[in-house]
Amino acid sequence: MRGRENMPTTMTIPKRLTHGEELVVLTKKEYEDAIQKNKEILEVLKIIAQGEKEYRQGKTKPIHSLSDLDK
Fold first, then answer.
1. Could you tell me if residue 31 is inside a domain?
2. Is the overall model pTM greater than 0.85, yes or no?
């Protein structure tokens, strides 16, 4: 059959494998990048939670400008 070399490959994924959910296909690099970004986001959220905890405990002090940090 001529002309088929440019056609995308079609794969049928049984619903039992995806449990009826939508399926997304990523390259390995895209997947690894997403995992790395997720790790970074989780680390930032952890730092924010720690800061909020310290704020509630009164361990922070208000400042009006960065020069107040030198005081």
1. yes
2. no
Q: Which domain holds residue 31?
A: 25-59
pLDDT in tens, 26-66: 999 999 999 999 999 999 999 999 999 999 999 998 889 99
DSSP code per residue over 2-69: TTGGGSPP-----HHHHTT-------HHHHHHHHHHHHHHHHHHHHHHHHHHHHHTT-----SSGGGG
Residues 6+ apart with CB under 8 A from 23: 13
Number of domains in the chain: 1
C-beta atoms surrounding 25 within 10 Å: 8
- For residues 17 and 20, give the distance between their C-alpha atoms in angstroms, rounded to a whole number: 8
Instruction: Determine the residue type at 24.
Output: V
